[in-house]
Specification:
Structural class: alpha+beta
Order of helices and strands: HEEHHEEHEEEEEEHHHHHH
Strand content: 5-15%
Oligomer: single chain
Distance between the termini: 92 Å
Largest sheet: 6 strands, mixed
Shape: globular
Radius of gyration: 23 Å
Number of helices: 10
């Protein structure tokens, strides 16, 4: 009697890793914290639970904090070297939509001097020591060993990307890493900025209205101000609206308990001014946020 023929289905070959994900894993193995970047070369937006930092924000990777979101929330702060996180289901959709890989230079002990045009590159050749260089769409990234504070528009066509910032990964580059020179550190030293008088009126005396301060540590407020600065300086369009919404978010959380000081307001105004806002525009946005919240 003829035996029935058993038809075995050929096993499907495993799908190859997307190029961006493969690149990200390669960087992570070498200690470089990575994250996917979407169209516009910017981080993916926060999930609903983390919108407007409702979760309290995610601090840098060395400090435990209130946010335990498994997704890619909070921009640079989501960058990681953990392959289980990078390949997790929570990140899978983002990698499918990603247009490039971002990394957190400060988390890898690096500083990127982002030179946007030929004039900026000429300045770097004249002032800065040679180091590893990566070509970008419009200019070059000069990468140095050691981390520092990030700051945009430190001079025409020059941004600094390091701690609390991210950069696009554009390849290994050429040249040998040099130590971060003092000339770059000096660029990030913020000069005192005048504060529009209305800003001082926004500082509510501690305990005013009988409200108890909900912040357990000064670090909570510091994270909030730092994330607000990052949101403003990362704005590539709709800067006016971004500044107003950010001021509104800061005041809604910190404006009633007496924690905000003139120094905090100066930081927010300075961040807005690096994106082209005038001092009067900053003051108007602050006043409108105060009025909206009834402060």
């Amino acid at each position: 009697m003829t035996q029935p023929v058993t038809i075995r289905r050929a096993s499907r070959p495993r799908s190859p890793l997307p190029d961006h994900l493969r690149t990200a894993l390669s960087l992570a193995v070498n200690g470089v914290p990575v994250l996917p970047l979407r169209r516009g070369k910017v981080p993916f937006g926060n999930c609903p639970a983390c919108a407007d930092n409702a979760c309290g924000g995610r601090p840098n990777m060395k400090t435990p904090g209130p946010c335990h979101c498994p997704g890619i929330c909070h921009a640079w702060a989501a960058a990681t070297t953990d392959p289980d996180v990078i390949t997790s289901p929570a990140w899978a959709a983002a990698w499918r939509q990603a247009v490039c890989v971002g990394y957190h230079p400060g988390g890898a002990g690096l500083t990127v001097v982002d030179l946007d045009d030929a004039d900026a590159i000429a300045w770097a050749h004249a002032v800065l020591p040679a180091t590893r260089t990566v070509a970008t769409t419009r200019g070059e990234h000069w990468i140095y060993r050691s981390a520092m504070a990030s700051r945009n528009a430190v001079r025409p066509g020059v941004d600094i990307k390091s701690t609390m910032g991210y950069a696009r990964y554009l390849g290994p580059g050429t040249g040998t890493l040099a130590d971060l020179p003092d000339a770059v550190r000096a660029l990030a030293v913020k000069k005192p900025s005048p504060v529009w008088p209305v800003a001082r009126a926004a500082v509510v005396p501690a305990g005013a209205g009988g409200e108890e301060c909900p912040h357990r540590t000064p670090a909570y407020l510091e994270r909030g101000i730092a994330m607000a600065e990052q949101r403003i300086t990362a704005a590539s369009n709709a800067v006016h609206a971004t500044v107003y919404r950010t001021f509104l978010a800061v005041l809604s959380r910190h404006g009633r308990c007496g924690c905000l000081t003139d120094a905090h307001v100066v930081r927010l105004f300075t961040a807005a001014q690096t994106r082209g806002e005038t001092l009067r525009h900053c003051a108007d946005a602050w006043t409108n946020a105060l009025t909206t919240l009834g402060l």
